[in-house]
């Protein structure tokens, strides 16, 4: 790499680093905006934002606690204070028509803000004799911004300002320093990713888990099951391997709730879910709450005979828990009925057809006295 190439590569890395910082700031602002602003306790260091015009800006909880709203712009300023103190990274939200005087642009920022209005989206230059890099990106007016900025005449889609970011970056062409610069910027980017992204990551993980896990029984839910069976059906068709499902239904569960109450009914459901899950021995075996008192088990690479054995184990396991149910005769204990359906690897069935077959077998198990297993078109004696 020659001198010119080294300089060009340094500028490219600096521009990408500035853009990464800018996008992380936008993600943080989006998170705040999606929640309609967030609240924090008023302290000596955190005072209410005098430029935020909303009747819900402050919430007085009691004489010792007042909460104040932090909107995206206020949060950006606070993050900037942390970044410059901890990492010597300075960013500034600004506009040609700012609400807050402190957000007025510098001469350099004013020049680029005018360029943004002509269609330019970002700029980046080396500053301080090559010891820092200045990046600035345009801010577009989103729908959630109109609460504060509509009265200034902005409409959705307008360029209403920008965010400038200044961070340490030495423009020194020797390769050793170039590589060191890469490492330092990477580390700074990682630290900022952790600072700005940790809460978003936790929130996303929580939402993702809530979407696929049943809140009561803490096993996968129906949505998770439908996604899993879709994948396994494709695999079964591709490899011509059998795929079995077991549809399970707690016997006389409505009578259980009527007799012992819904709170105890919930505890019963949790015990049944755990009992089914603990009966499965292979990592590929899958169980989920299908709805109400119904559960479903998915067994890849398992024949009808093998699935029947697993179903019998589940049936015996649940009966063996000895959960009292006085109105479930003749056993006077909680029991479960199960229907088994299998897709032969050479056949082609949809998930709906496979479930329908299992449901027919389950219905037959109920008709034949409950607390038993039935195979589709082949009753277990």
UniProtKB/TrEMBL annotation:
Q: Which Pfam families match?
A: GGDEF, Tll0287-like
In terms of CDD domains, this protein maps to: GGDEF
Please give the coiled-coil regions recorded for this protein: none
GO molecular-function term, one example from the UniProt record:
diguanylate cyclase activity
- EC number(s) reported in the record: 2.7.7.65
Q: Kindly list the GO CC terms recorded for this protein.
A: plasma membrane
- Domain GGDEF, which positions? 241-378
Q: Which PANTHER family does its entry note?
A: DIGUANYLATE CYCLASE DGCM-RELATED, REGULATORY COMPONENTS OF SENSORY TRANSDUCTION SYSTEM
Recorded hits in PROSITE patterns, A to Z, give: GGDEF
Lineage at the top is: Bacteria, Pseudomonadati, Thermodesulfobacteriota, Desulfobacteria, Desulfobacterales
Q: Does the keyword Transmembrane apply?
A: yes
Q: What organism is listed for this UniProt entry?
A: Desulforapulum autotrophicum (strain ATCC 43914 / DSM 3382 / VKM B-1955 / HRM2)
UniProt protein name: diguanylate cyclase
Catalytic activity, per the record? 2 GTP = 3',3'-c-di-GMP + 2 diphosphate
Q: Name one GO biological process term.
A: cell adhesion involved in single-species biofilm formation
The family database entries (InterPro entries) matched by this protein are listed as: Diguanylate_Cyclase, GGDEF_dom, Nucleotide_cyclase, Rev_trsase/Diguanyl_cyclase, Tll0287-like_dom
What residues form the membrane-spanning segments? 175-196
Q: Which UniProt keywords apply?
A: Membrane, Transmembrane, Transmembrane helix
